[in-house]
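[SOLVED] Need 3D model of a four-part complex

Original post:
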Amino acid sequence: MRPANPKNKVQILEMAIPLFAKSGFNGVSMRDIAAVVGISAAALYYHFSDKQSLYLQAVAQAFANKDETLTKTLATDDPPEQRLYNFILKFSELIYQDANFLSLLIREMLDGDDERLQKLTRQVFRMQFSSIIDLCKELAPKFDPHLLAVSIIGQLVYHIETKQVRVYLKGGKPEHNDPEVIADHIFNLIMYGLKSNCSVE
Amino acid sequence: MRPANPKNKVQILEMAIPLFAKSGFNGVSMRDIAAVVGISAAALYYHFSDKQSLYLQAVAQAFANKDETLTKTLATDDPPEQRLYNFILKFSELIYQDANFLSLLIREMLDGDDERLQKLTRQVFRMQFSSIIDLCKELAPKFDPHLLAVSIIGQLVYHIETKQVRVYLKGGKPEHNDPEVIADHIFNLIMYGLKSNCSVE
DNA sequence: GTCTATATACCGATAGAC
DNA sequence: GTCTATCGGTATATAGAC
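Solution:
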């Protein structure tokens, strides 16, 4: 039978990404991927040398351009506070909209060996983390910029990561999943803390 | 051959916990567990009806008493600020010392279906989250207590979760992994924010 | 309570036709 | 580039001896 719709590598990767995000490397078989792509499992080996190679390329594909997108929001002429808010809102929207990206990221932090994590930080986070750290230094020289950057990103990630769980916890409301509500809350907390009356409602 | 050292369920669970924490449900086989326990894979089926049952009981075992421990630090006569600091430090030490607990928790949030997540929040987090929310209301009535509680726990979890990755990021220092350094940073940030000079009290 | 042996299914990967 | 067929290995789980 003549193949009606031959696939290229990127198409296959894009279809594999949600599978790996949902079930992890060990939870997805080559047959599973082949099924959603619409070809046989054997055909996957024409495009990729083995399963690990397919997985790593899928992760790289899912992470591509994320760093660039975020770094751009930090490299403007706006005042530092505005740049921080823009970054927080952009990051919030990014991980809210692209659930696969966040899942794969968390899975990589759990499963990746030292070599892969090093590569990950270089490819995905280096520029962005560098920019946010410089911004932290500018905004609050008294704070350790590394700890501060992790605190900001940690809140963003965790608010989205716990989306599914939080509805069962006390005080959970639907609007807590709105990326803008999350961003406003984090910015306000980071800037002014609990003991301030400078807060912006 | 006479069995030299028969195992009970709890012993098996305790030995399975680090395996599931490190490699996840799909990354651990019944043979793997049997090997570290020191019995045959078939013998596991005397204690557990199937792999899923063993896994769920291992998770329950790993999570047992965590809620109680944390809730206790919140139920004292100390002033609210002191209670918040005690909670942050205790939580920081807890997830730093028990890496299996945090790994399993994150994996459950990725893999658990709605039913399991609901059970998880009831068993592990309900009292603790309830107490921290009441404390948040007391400390900062102007903030949404749910968002605030997630921000506090999110920072704690993320600082420890990224332990392995952060060494490759700008400004990373060994002392950033000290649970007390993390706790002090988070408490200070939460209470006073970056603009501490414009706080009222 | 643990063993050996085994049933059954699925896995990753390859061979060779088209 | 994709197919069918298949290999060798491993998975979960069971049967039955001790």
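Edit: Residues 1-3, 6-7, 39-40, 42-43, 46-47 of chain A lie near DNA strand D (CB under 10 Å from a C1').
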